[in-house]
């Protein structure tokens, strides 16, 4: 067990976000989306700005990718690529409604100092990939079952030169890995076991015996869809139980309200891509 008094060290991060200027629930491609439920666009933008200001206030750099008309889900910037050591492994979306987002993200990376690699396999970026640079020498955790194909895990491993561990998601409410698992620092994770197959649960328990386990209540509140700098953990304000567990493990919970963006099936992490130079 981790001592409550253990000192956690934050590390400055660089993030990419895209404002919800065109955000709406115009179709349903995950169980959380309901086209009959109205979206308050103004409130969504206000909550997004609050998240961006929170991250900047913690000392992190936040780049903004302009929103594009006709792409209501572009606010979920984590899905556009997966970046490790300056190399961006691009996304190839499962659903045609989001396909053009990949082009916008590719343009961002190719206009900068990033090595962009176009994917051959279907994957949705950091939605289904997590990276722990100090776990086992640098480890990719990769989800599949609903959006990303297992073949993309092998492709990411080759592109990024890091071993990838495939984890099967079995509950459609946790359609991306980042709704069920998150990196808390460079070698520790938090996750909800019930989102994964029995075999994947065993793999996670073996690899991460010190993980912080979330319960069903916080998992369904998108509590695991979080962003952490190694000490400060930014998560959905409804996830008070998980916040307590994180605090007991030595982290500092930072609660934010993202109720409008939850209507599209995402929360904090979905809105934030990490750019790892």
Short overview:
It is built from seven helices and 15 strands.
Protein described:
Its EC number is 3.5.3.18. GO terms for molecular function: dimethylargininase activity. This protein has 277 residues and is an alpha/beta fold. The chain has a single domain (14-274), classed as L-arginine/glycine Amidinotransferase, Chain A (5-stranded Propeller), CATH 3.75.10.10. The chain contains seven helices and 15 strands. The protein has helices spanning 41-57, 101-110, 150-160, 198-207, 216-220, 240-248, 259-262; strands spanning 14-17, 61-64, 81-84, 87-90, 115-117, 129-132, 139-144, 164-168, 181-183, 189-191, 212-213, 227-228, 232-236, 252-256, 273-274. It has a three-stranded mixed β-sheet with strand order 2-1-15, covered by helices on one side. The model is unreliable at 1-5 (pLDDT under 50).
Notable characteristics:
277 residues, L-arginine/glycine Amidinotransferase, Chain A, three-stranded mixed β-sheet, 24% helix, disordered N terminus
